[in-house]
Records
---
Amino acid sequence: GAGVSQSPRYKVAKRGQDVALRCDPISGHVSLFWYQQALGQGPEFLTYFQNEAQLDKSGLPSDRFFAERPEGSVSTLKIQRTQQEDSAVYLCASSLTSGAYNEQFFGPGTRLTVL
Amino acid sequence: AQTVTQSQPEMSVQEAETVTLSCTYDTSESNYYLFWYKQPPSRQMILVIRQEAYKQQNATENRFSVNFQKAAKSFSLKISDSQLGDTAMYFCAFMKLGTGGGADGLTFGKGTHLIIQP
């Protein structure tokens, strides 16, 4: 079956532009996570959805970052007025249930470059 | 807040050797989960092995095993009979229990770049 997919795979934005990054989780997966991975670093948690409910957004770095999952499936991470420090790979992951022990399946990521 | 430390930025071993990657973490939580993820050059993260903190028995998955020392807050990964395909970034990760005891985001270390030499 299909894994987690993300689009676009690469995005170049000028400083100040708004961007939207899409995540298609594995069909039927309840939990969805967003992470930010700077070059040479481990991923950092941004936000977590259980179905359409955003249960944890403690990792969003500023109010320029907004995520949604309105129908409990596809999710969009939106970054307003992009800054150079937003340049990173944005990873999406999904897991089958809300259980903590569940494996998170990761997508290939979207590499965002802000000029 | 939780922190995860991987003190080995890069390791290199010969094929078929055994290698151990170290990981320590800091938390005030009493129940949590620990994971090792592998990120090959294609960048898609893959789960290698996981451990529930309340289980004393160390997890094993074929050639991969962990040495979990809860009191020392240590969670090392041992790879036996290493293969060329094991070359990747390896990330240690921590998960505290979220709302209702369910999932929450992972806290990752900075990773260890493991190179298996032919």
Note: The two ends of chain A are 37 Å apart (CA to CA).
---
Amino acid sequence: EVQLVESGGGLVQPGGSLRLSCAASGFTFRSFSMNWVRQAPGKGLEWVANIKEDGSEKYYVDSVRGRFTISRDNAKNSLFLQMNSLRAEDTAVYYCARWGRSGWDPVRDGAFDIWGQGTLVTVSS
Amino acid sequence: DIQMTQSPSSLSASVGDRVTITCRASQRISGYLNWYQQKPGKAPKLLIYGASSLQRGVPSRFSGSGSGTDFTLTISSLQPEDFATYYCQHSYSLPQTFGGGTKVEIK
């Protein structure tokens, strides 16, 4: 079964740090670009970060650039999100999501086709 | 950044109704538009990719259309399990942004 399982969420004070993990199974992890997508309580979805198949390229939404770092370990089928200098507005459920390619353009032709169950990050004093 | 605007933000419908949700992009995005369904407390689920391609395993009552700036998700005959929130998302450029969502409720 194709599966993504996040862990590492919790309560952290403003300015603190947290490291999220996502364990992948059931597919060839190293062949897929991976993402983090978050959802604040009662709000919509926001893409946070992307990492290419081999980890050579990484992209971030402006609001987290310089504070969050996405990484992966293909040998261990794992995706990570290191979150530093956390703010109240970072409070959200964080999902890891696989980018499933559907055409010749690796960036545009595709969608988030597999999602984890999410892990809640709460930033509060 | 490209802004995605969904309408309506919510709607009430009955089982068997035909439901249409629209998504408008702030600039042309060709056909790089995906649709997701999310139920309370659950992760989103991919329904439609590339504006009109049905994801494997998704019932054929779901369909998508559009290109450029205007897109539509249609549920041909609403079923009880379809009551959920639906999001559009573009993949034309980074950051990939989502629409605000459309909540489909039971009338």
Note: The radius of gyration of chain B is 13 Å.
